[in-house]
């Protein structure tokens, strides 16, 4: 039986992250994210000390399931209004790329 593994994975994947809400329960948001290999991830890590969370994450996420359109301005608004969102998104993305997601 031949494996279904592809040498070139899909360009994007869906990632559900639980965005912490101040004074409330975390809300799940489904992001569409870019797939990266090891070299591309290393290049992303190399940018971390010199760029903003918005700059980095704008190169990670390409869409979402919110009612508002996924635009640079709306993404910036999400990160500004939910202070822990950037960390949660990046950590979930990193874990998914390296297949380290939590098993429930």
Question: What is the strand and helix layout of this fold?
Answer:
Elements: E1 12-19, E2 27-34, H1 38-47, H2 53-58, E3 61-64, H3 72-81, H4 85-97
Antiparallel strand pairs: 1-2, 2-3
What amount of the residues lies in strands? 15-25%
Main beta sheet: strand number and arrangement? 3 strands, antiparallel
Shape: globular
Distance between the termini: 30 Å
Structural class: alpha+beta
Assembly status: single chain
Low-confidence stretches: none
Q: Please, how many helices?
A: 4
Taking all Cα atoms into account, the compactness measure Rg is 15 Å
Mean pLDDT: 94
3D architecture notes:
A 3-stranded antiparallel sheet has the order 1-2-3, with helices on one face. 12% of the residues are buried. The model has no long low-confidence stretch (mean pLDDT 94). β1 (12-19) and β2 form a beta hairpin. It is 38% helix and 19% strand. The N and C termini lie far apart (30 Å). It is α+β, with helices and mostly antiparallel strands and 104 residues long. The protein has helices at residues 38-47, 53-58, 72-81, 85-97, and strands at 12-19, 27-34, 61-64.
């Amino acid at each position: 039986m031949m494996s279904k593994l592809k040498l070139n994975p899909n360009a994007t994947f869906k990632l559900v992250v639980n965005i912490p809400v101040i004074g409330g329960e975390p809300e799940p948001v489904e992001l569409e994210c870019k797939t990266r290999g090891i070299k591309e991830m290393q290049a992303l890590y190399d940018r971390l000390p010199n760029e903003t969370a918005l700059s980095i994450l704008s190169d990670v996420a390409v869409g979402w399931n919110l009612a508002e359109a996924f635009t640079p301005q709306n993404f910036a608004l999400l990160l500004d209004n939910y202070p822990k969102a950037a960390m949660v998104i990046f950590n979930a993305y990193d874990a998914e790329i390296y297949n380290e997601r939590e098993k429930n």
